[in-house]
Every structure is written in structure tokens, then in C-alpha cells.
Design a protein that fits this description.
Strand content: 5-15%
Helix content: 25-40%
Radius of gyration: 15 Å
Shape: globular
Structural class: alpha/beta
Number of strands: 3
Strand order of the largest sheet: 1-2-3
Order of helices and strands: HEHEHHE
Largest sheet: 3 strands, parallel
Distance between the termini: 48 Å
Number of helices: 4
Length: about 100
């Protein structure tokens, strides 16, 4: 029986580039960038933007954590300001520890 799951290379080839941009602001750990790239690749997203990352960029730990999503990391753009050309923007922030909603 044929394997119907697309490879990561197939996912990159099929991505239209019209998806949302994922923006990480002042990311402390390179591993978080790599894991974000891996999650993006799972959903066919490739537009990663980094705003003032606190870790050195590019970083070997990000590549290791990406589990093969190197295409996303290779095309990641580093920005000084995140919002310039987007009409719609949503965001999320971590809640302080111990905060119950």
C-alpha cells in the first residue's frame, strides 16, 4: 500500500505562500524558533518572521529542533518592527505563571 502522507519537501512545494505569516517577537530560546518552524511545516505554512530575537540567529539549536523544517528556517526573515503591511493582525502573549482565567 502506498504511503499517502506527504513529505516535508512535498508540503513546501504545495504551499502557495498565501497563508498567514507567523511572527515571533523577542524569542529567548533558539529551540522555540525551531519547534515553531516544525509546527508551521506540519500545517503547510512557510512565512516565519523574527522580530529582535534574543538568541543569536541563525542558531544550530533551532535547526536541530526543527526536525527537518529547514526550508522554513532558511526563508525566515528578521525584522525590526513586526507590523508594516498587514491589514489584519492577531496576537497572543503568555499569561504570568499562577494566573488563572
Amino acid at each position: 500500500m502506498a504511503d499517502l502522507e506527504p513529505t516535508k519537501r512535498d508540503a513546501v512545494a504545495r504551499t502557495t505562500g498565501n497563508g498567514p505569516a507567523i511572527i515571533l517577537v523577542e524569542t529567548s530560546l533558539a529551540e522555540n524558533i525551531g519547534m515553531t518552524a516544525r509546527a508551521m511545516m506540519n500545517f503547510g505554512l512557510t512565512d516565519l518572521r523574527l522580530v529582535r530575537p534574543k538568541c543569536k540567529w541563525p542558531h544550530a539549536k533551532a535547526i536541530s529542533a526543527s526536525s527537518g523544517a529547514h526550508a522554513v528556517l532558511k526563508e525566515a526573515k528578521s525584522l525590526r518592527r513586526p507590523l508594516r503591511r498587514w491589514r489584519i493582525c492577531t496576537g497572543s502573549v503568555p499569561l504570568p505563571r499562577g494566573c488563572v482565567t
